[in-house]
Amino acid sequence: MHSFSRPQRTVLDILRHRRAFASTARDRADDHKVALVIEGGGARGSYSGGMVATLEKLGYSTAFDAVFGTSAGALNAAWFLAGTANEHLWTWWEPRVVHRILEPRRLLTGGRAFDIEHLVETIYTTIAPMDFAAIGAHHTTLHPVATELATGAATDLHRHTRTPAGIRAALRASCALPLVAGPPVHLGGQRYLDGGLAESVPLGSALAWGATHVLVLRTRSAAHALAGNSGLSALMEVLAVHGYLARQSRAAVQAWTGRAERAEQLEEILGRPSPAFSVIRPPDTAPMVGTGERDEQLLRTAVRIGAAQVDVVLGDGARSLEGARG
């Protein structure tokens, strides 16, 4: 993983300054490259959904130079740049959406447990319209991260986001869990699967892009950061990785089996105090939301907790408290 330089200003100070002057990536007065990095995790995206909605509400929509997201994180990155993360926050818990997109019983008849194609191509175009044109016109760039099937490498799909159709394809690729969400997505002559196979928190992709400062939105608390999957999520892992993926790409399987080691390394990196990055994540008391969670109240709770965590760190009250401490 690329390393940070040694900046003097903190990422939070830079973001507040940019918000105060309403600067955009086209007219910055500073030379920093600030990235928003959003972790994936299926239904755990309800946490980061609340987080990006609050960033939007607090006025940080133009404060970043790039937004990186993996899987569900890519979906929330897109909502953030579309400017309607708050308006469509309900899609993270509404049963008519959640139960249509996630239905494990479809696997019994050869279908998809996660119907990401329906989510992106139907729900995001008709029921809860995502403004893909606004995303493309935004001065902040969108970077969905997926796993290249042939190599198992995390891949930044920004180059495919120049058109609404390209954005939708890149989002589907970033969320293409092997087997349980359908076949790999073809883009530019390559086949891609869910970015979480190789990089569930796309920090490395952001640093490779050239980020000097990063705000990381996590969907796992510190207490659950290294926890493995259980229940439905564990079953889908067995089917997807040890069944389907093992027959498709040894490199992709190796990427998946290295996840635990990468997670430990990430915790170590983000645990070191640095002005270059800040991490917002659920508190240790927050409930663990499984990849395939469908409970409406639990998902609503996750959204509320995620929203509150951002407000604590970047809300005007947080700034006042910092001044009082100083």
Automatic annotation (TrEMBL):
Position of sequence motif DGA/G: 194-196
Motif range (GXSXG): 69-73
Keyword Lipid metabolism carried by entry: yes
Every PNPLA domain range: 36-207
Pfam families cross-referenced by the UniProt entry: Patatin
Keyword presence, Lipid metabolism: yes
Protein's GO biological process: lipid catabolic process
Catalytic residues in the record: 71, 194
Key words, A-Z: Hydrolase, Lipid degradation, Lipid metabolism
InterPro entries: Acyl_Trfase/lysoPLipase, NTE, PNPLA_dom
Molecular function terms, GO-annotated: hydrolase activity
Domain of life: Bacteria
Motif GXGXXG in this chain: 40-45
Matches recorded under PANTHER family: NEUROPATHY TARGET ESTERASE/SWISS CHEESE D.MELANOGASTER, PNPLA DOMAIN-CONTAINING PROTEIN
Name of the protein: Patatin-like phospholipase family protein
